[in-house]
Amino acid sequence: MDAAKRLTTLNRIRKLSRLMDTSIRIPLTGFHIGLDPILGLVPGAGDLISTVFSAYIIFLATRFGIPHQDLAKMIFNVGLEAVVGTVPLVGDLFDAFYKSNIRNLAILEQHLMVVEPELEEVFEEVYQNQVNQPTKGVGV
Known about the structure:
By secondary structure, this protein is an all-alpha fold. It has one domain (3-132). 72% of the residues lie in helices and 3% in strands. The protein contains seven helices and two strands, in the order αββαααααα. The chain has helices at residues 3-21, 35-39, 45-62, 68-85, 90-98, 100-115, 117-132, and strands at 24-25, 32-33.
């Protein structure tokens, strides 16, 4: 994969992880939840859907050549959340606090900082260029 595809994949992993674990702020608390614990409220299918999303994130992470021990940690995180998530209500609370996708994102980013520190620099440079460019076709 070239640098652009790697950045796109990393950005996709970040967005999905945040969507599943921290996309919704609970008012007056500063605590964030994502779709994962909400989907878990749907008996049976909700936990399965959440686990499929988490497995997809892990699949994307394998494209970065993540070491087997890190991959095992990521699988354990998702497996633990999937198993505990099957317990009604308690599992949903566990999902809200454990946040396996954010944990897995941290594992991947730690790996990338060691193996490909320039990838983050390129990402920040591309992001700054996008922010500093005026939008076309929008009159102010």
